[in-house]
Amino acid sequence: MRPGIVLLASVVALFTAGCPQDPVPDRIQLYSVTTAPPARTALLVSTDLDHHVEMSRGVALGIGCWDTCKGSCENPTFEVTDTAIATVRPVFRASGGYATWVVVAKSAGTTQLRVANACAEQVYGLTVADPP
Q1: Residues sharing a CB contact under 8 Å with residue 102, sequence separation 6 or more, in sequence order
Q2: Would you say residue 17 has pLDDT above 70?
Q3: Per-domain boundaries in the chain
Q4: What is the pLDDT of residue 104?
C-alpha cells in the first residue's frame, strides 16, 4: 500500500508543477500612427531584437505604445537624451480615444528615445537626417 501512495503523490506533484519555462520579460513597444510626407523619412522599427527610429529633420511622427502588462501602455514617460535633436510631446484629442504622442525631428544627429511605465522600459536609437 505504501508504494502506491508514493507513486500517486509523485504523479500529482509532476502534474501540478508543470514543465519549467523561461519567464517572458515584460516589455513596452512603440508603433507609428502616421507616415512621413513625400520625400521625407519616418521609420519606426520595434521588434524583439531591434528598436530604432529614423526620421528626416522637420518631420513629426505620430506614435502610440502598448505593453505586455495591460496592453494599453498606461502613463508612459518619454525621454530623449539630446533634446536639440528631437522631442516627444503628447497629442491632445478633443474626442478622446487612444493616447498618442508625436516625435518631432528638430536637427540632424543621433540620440536615444527612452519610453517607460510601471510595466517596463525600452530604449530606441533615434537618428535624424537632413532631408535631400
Answers
A1: 60, 61, 62, 63, 88, 89, 90, 91
A2: no
A3: 24-129
A4: 97
Q: Which cell numbers hold the place of 26?
A: 515584460
User: CA-CA distance, 131 to 54, in Å (whole number)?
Assistant: 12
According to the CATH classification, is domain 24-129 in 3.30.70.360?
no
Tell me: the pLDDT tens digits for 66-85?
Answer: 998 887 788 899 999 999 99
Say if CB 58 and CB 96 are below 8 A apart: no
CB 129 within 8 A of CB 38: no
Task: Tell me the CB-side half-sphere exposure of residue 82, using CA atoms within 13 A.
Answer: 14
Q: For 31-43, what is each residue's pLDDT tens digit?
A: 999 999 999 999 9
